[in-house]
Amino acid sequence: xxxxxxxxxxxxxxxxxxxxxxxxxxxxxxxxxxxxxxxxxxxxxxxxxxxxxxxxxxxxxxxxxxxxxxxxxxxxxxxxxxxxxxxxxxxxxxxxxxxxxxx
Amino acid sequence: xxxxxxxxxxxxxxxxxxxxxxxxxxxxxxxxxxxxxxxxxxxxxxxxxxxxxxxxxxxxxxxxxxxxxxxxxxxxxxxxxxxxxxxxxxxxxxxxxxxxxxxxxxxxxxxxxxxxxxxxxxxxxxxxxxxxxxxxxxxxxxxxxxxxxxxxxxxxxxxxxxxxxxxxxxxxxxxxxxxxxxxxxxxxxxxxxxxxxxxxxxxxxxxxxxxxxxxxxxxxxxxxxxxxxxxxxxxxxxxxxxxxxxxxxxx
Lengths: 103, 251
Prior knowledge:
The complex is a heterodimer of chains A (103) and B (251). By secondary structure, chain A is an alpha+beta fold. Chain A has 2 helices and 3 strands. Chain A has a single domain (15-93), classed as Ubiquitin-like (UB roll). Chain B has helices at 3-25, 33-60, 67-72, 92-113, 119-148, 151-164, 176-179, 190-208, 231-239, 241-245. Chain B is globular. The mean pLDDT of chain B is 96.
């Protein structure tokens, strides 16, 4: 992903930002999609206008897309597959106390 | 419903309605997708605001009419919106400068009306304040962005200010039908509104490195008494096409 700014203003739509929405206080932020914007204020407002028009959330995070650190797909086997045969790592052998929500 | 009250209500509704129409004209023509949606959102907020006032005017009217009738079935001379909202989009800087002037006006108007002794006006104002606070934030930021952006963006914003300034005084004029009732706690104090509006505009222009026109004396008015600019006829012929062709059309 390139961090350079496109200076052709006739076609430039700003840089790309990733939008994370929190549906209620206390809930995790979930990725909703992306938007274009030229600065932080515009990013927040564009995200609000594109993604939260129907009461989808009560809070927003905006992250410049080129600041996201990601695992590339050639690496994914060595990153994730070793976990697939280690069922004992899942806490499924315990009884959850009553009243625990969102596990 | 007395004449003054009706005129005051219609001014609010017609301003929001015609401005909303101008914004809606920009739908699908925004500079990019996100801005297109954002402008259309503002248009929707404004049409919602206008609708509730038209319905109230219809409700309080002695004639048996609907809100839609009040909104769409009047002649040009009976529309009481100010000239500013009729002005064409021309370019994005014009659209946003017009919006900034109106958002600032709406923000202080509804702040004042939120304590009105008229229960409908205070309820309307309290509901609308949340929306117009956001509108004002957006349009102020755009003005600052224009002014501190490129040479071209600054030039376009300054050009829009020069063209639109002559329509700003009309916002604070009182129609003869309700002028005597100003100061009784029902309607907003126009002089106070003008002072607050000017302060806000000065503040944003300072941050944006934009300036007010040299000649600020030359002002046009007439919209509030039904004498509109040449643009109004075109707006109405487009807006009223459907209700004229299908008078009893329903959603």
